[in-house]
Amino acid sequence: MAQVLAVPGAVRHGFSYVGLFNHDFLRITGIAATIKGNILLCDYVKKKLILIDSLGNYLQSLDVDSEPYDLAVTSQNLGHVTQPSSNSVLQIDPDRMIVLCKATCSELNTTVFCVSALPNTSRLFKGQVSCFLGVNRRGSSYAFPVNHDDIFENISKEQSSLGSRVVKFHAVNELTFLSCIGGQNYITCSQYSGSLGTSDNISNIATMDTPTDICSDDYGHIYVSGQGSNNIHRLTELKANSVFSDWKVLDIPLASQHGIKEPVALCFNKDYSKLYIVNEWGKSVLIFDVN
User: Fold this and answer.
1) Keyword Oxidoreductase, does the record have it (predicted)?
2) One-letter-per-residue 3-state SS of the chain
3) Is the pTM of this model over 0.90?
4) In tens digits, what is the pLDDT along the chain, a chain of 291 residues?
5) What is the total count of domains within the chain?
6) Residue at 81 is within a domain
7) Is residue 234 part of a domain?
8) Domain limits at 206?
9) Which of 31, 53, 170, 183 has the smallest C-beta neighbourhood within 10 Å, fewest atoms?
């Protein structure tokens, strides 16, 4: 897909710098917001989960038994933390910082590596999918829905292919997934409708280098952090005549002149009033008000 800027005047958020915080981080690789407005971080090197308030003030931390790589907090305020080195997932209460359970994947040739929560699902667990885990199996990556009572129940039954060499992915909805690809300067879109499925590269975005993470706002716009390009791209979905969508670059709302340097992860808080960007290859976090 060639880089195309969407029609000027499209409704979009603006951002105002609030501040920066660093609580002796060594390498933050994942970030997510809790329902209470706090922010949860995972420090891969320190093997630690860190909870801060909305302005970056330290609240508490939790040591874990393996390197935490990615995390997500669902609309039910249930945290999922992936630990690829031990091939396990933690379920936690993110505001109490309590581990509720740990599940280890026993599937052969399968590694659990990342996780994405579906936005704005209901507070009830029953009868809905609120979270997807990303697994690598024999070089290919897949997303599967999490069963809250048995994390890996669906690992062999319900899978959506993400392609190969996926670093992080974002579940736009239950049938659409956007992925960052290791060693590449593009992201991919995997979409499903009934028995149909497609996976396409959103490529040739000349101003994007080494995409590392993806999130979305309350307008449905997609944000991609570019570690090598020191910027944040904003994409918008364009409905085509077919059952599948296309994605186009809307703009670059944040870049090096706004303090963006080697961003590796990002998220909005639950009411979309603030944007948090893990900066400097995981050493600090920037806070922006959303206008």
Assistant:
1) yes
2) CCCCECCCCCCCCCEEEEEEECCCCCCEEEEEECCCCCEEEEECCCCEEEEECCCCCEEEEEECCCCCCEEEECCCCCEEEEEHHHCEEEEEECCCCEEEEEEECCCCCEEEEEEEECCCCCCCCCCCCCEEEEEEECCEEEEEECCCCCCCCCCCCCCEEEEECEEEEEEEECCEEEEEECCCCCEEEEEEECCEEEEEEECCCCCCCCEEEEEECCCCCEEEEECCCCEEEEEEEEECCCCCEEEEEEEEEECHHHCCCCCCEEEECCCCCEEEEEEHHHCEEEEEEEC
3) yes
4) 234 344 455 678 999 999 999 999 999 999 999 999 999 999 999 999 999 999 999 999 999 999 999 999 999 999 999 999 999 999 999 999 999 999 999 888 899 999 999 987 777 666 678 899 999 988 899 999 987 777 877 776 768 899 888 999 999 999 999 999 998 899 999 998 766 677 777 867 889 999 999 999 999 999 999 999 999 999 998 875 566 778 889 999 999 999 999 999 999 999 999 999 999 999 999 999 999
5) 1
6) yes
7) yes
8) 15-290
9) 183
Indicate whether 10 belongs to any domain: no
